[in-house]
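Team,

Forwarding the record for the chain on the shared tracking sheet. I've put the sequence and predicted structure together so nobody has to dig through attachments.
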Amino acid sequence: MSSTEPAVYSGWQTERSGFMGNLSGLGFALVAAASAIALIPIYTRSWSSAFIALPLSALLLALAYGRVLGLTADEWIVLAVRHQIAVATSKNFFFSGLFAPRRADDDTQPMDLPGTLARMRLLEAPDGLGGEIAVMHNPIEGTYTAVCQVSYPGLALIDTDKQNARVRGWAAFLRSQCKEDGAVVRIAVHQRSLPDDGGALRSWAERHTSPDAPAAAVQVLGELMAGAGPAATVRETYLSVTLSASRARLAIKGAGGGQIGAAAVLVREINAMHSALSSAGLHVVEWLAPRAMAQVIRTAYDPEAHLTLSARNTSAEDPQWQGAPRGVDPELAGPAATETGWGIYRHDGAWTVTYQVRGFPRSDVYATFLQPLLRPRSNARRSLSLVYEPIGPGKARAELAREKTKRQVARDIRKKTGRAESEDERREAMTANAQDVARASGHGVLRFTALVAVTVTDREELETACAELQADASAANLEIRRAWGAQDAAFAVSALPLGQGLPDRRVGI
């Protein structure tokens, strides 16, 4: 037995950026308006006007600084107005295939992915081993993403030395991507926890049961399939790697230029990652081919298709599926229809609610602290996405220096105005300083967020599934918040391993 103590982790630092301090542009305008209105009674020398001006000024300040569920009132107003515009123009609906609307000057069908994913294009690229891999191209952002399915032995049942070594291996892998002007701009880990009715397991057992098997053994096996099968849970883990065409322009030019050159550079980058991933205990099962990528997308939008596709893919010798290719035709990857609500996303025969992790544990935690989020549930499937964006050393130095300066200025202002410094503010300043020390010591700096989604096929079970997820998040010491007004965009990040990233414009949390 190992005597090594398990490593603990902490120090996540919340980004604090805005137009002025923590205020957005609209928030700053509200504060400026409140200040101007509060001065009106002084300039007019009218006490009667103060009864109107001061309450109005207080209301504007409340809209700028008041927070509900982590957002200020002006941010809620922006979300609500944007959502109502989408509803009024029917842009919260999406129809694919024969139901898709056509333009008079264009007879072609629009792409079958909704919302922010409509811009994505599925390309094929040689993997260097005689096969093909799928590359998701975002022409707006100029990025190329490859996705692999990975397997891992887990951390809960191994000794402390191996657990620490694997976590250090993953940290080293992430740190290796924090290069100045590195081509890889985003790495995302996506895991699904899917309830399984045991159909694929029963099909496999039926095909492999010998006709000469004892009747008692067949009966026991049948009872086991009936009891254990529906309680089974399937977990799928994917790793996506996103390359920026602008950062890798010279390498792309040297590889032939255009989409072909970009795909070649991306393949070269992912092939170079294999050894680092192995050090973290991750085994690359396969880099997804176009049909496999389409199946991942399809099963996210239509959970009921997962059982049929799983049975077909694992039943190659079944006469019913002989000759059927694995996966899904990329043209059929998207949903038939979706509807975006204020706090819910409906897609095909399922409903999904996505949450963003707004606060990570303040205390020290072990490497397994996220396990409660993916506890097996018989009535719902869950999806967790961890999104990392490496920051180069030069930019990291400037970012951390800016964070330290902001926090120090805020502390000085509070001291001058006689306000007591809270323990939270003191700890945040200490964390910012510790991060800068770690960066100077050679550690990497990353932007990081997590989103988790819960999906049900029975609308009546949705609120129960949401309550269970919130309870599990609380058990993990996580602060989560429903992605109000942005469920479609949040679904694209939380439920699909397509390398969707963090917003470029950062706002305070």
